[in-house]
Design goal:
Blueprint (H helix, E strand, L loop, with lengths): L2 H7 L5 H9 L3 E3 L2 E2 L14 E3 L2 E3 L6 E6 L29 E2 L8 E7 L2 H8 L7 E8 L4 H9 L13 E7 L3 E8 L6 H8 L3 E10 L2 E2 L9 E3 L2 H8 L2
Parallel strand pairs: 7-11
Antiparallel strand pairs: 1-2, 1-3, 3-4, 5-7, 5-13, 6-7, 8-10, 8-11, 9-10, 11-12
Helix pairs in contact: 1-2
Amino acid sequence: MRLDKYLANMGLGTRSQVRKIIKDGRVTVNGYIVYSSKTQVDEQNDEVMADKELLSYQNFFYYMMNKPQDVISATNDDSQKTVMDLLTKEDQKKSMFPVGRLDKDTTGLLIITNDGKLSHRLLSPAHHVSKVYEVKVAGVIDDEAQASLAAGITLKNGEQTKAAKVQVLKSNEKNSWIRLTISEGKYHQIKRMIGALSMHVLTLNRIEMGSLKLDTDLALGEYRKLTTTEIACLKEK
């Protein structure tokens, strides 16, 4: 792999930025200063240092974010703030993207990675990966509504959802707070499911995706690296 690509993949900057770092003599390979961006390195065996800091090459990166409201699940946008904007420059590795989408006004668990294979596994309908949400509903989710959700809802456009798991956490005469588990990802699915019951969603917060649970120590807008155990569990078939 070319040295400039290696450094760019490690998040040290764009190709042009890392070329300047190399040209300035700030990079060594196996103890020797190199000045050529075209220098070939073995990312698994060569010792690469930038500004005297040893770099450990990674192919893939994995983060858990507690997504806040008013931020979109996209890699970039000309007019709106994205979840990628919440990452530090150091953590904005090449080709990172959010796994799936949470609506702009939806909060909670979001995985950000550059591992396309894992993303496909988590999002593919064939794998039936469950997603758990805490939902505040304008309306009363009574026994009849629970049964409808559990059996699968016919949406207003005629689409049929798969059976969901629903738990009513609390309710009053106006609102219900429920925990809803689904295994598919139709567009605005939960809002449309609740809408088909002639109610609407007031707040929506994802707390689980597959084996991964939202870290309650993460405030809205914060994120952390996934542990090796969390990554391994997500990859299990």
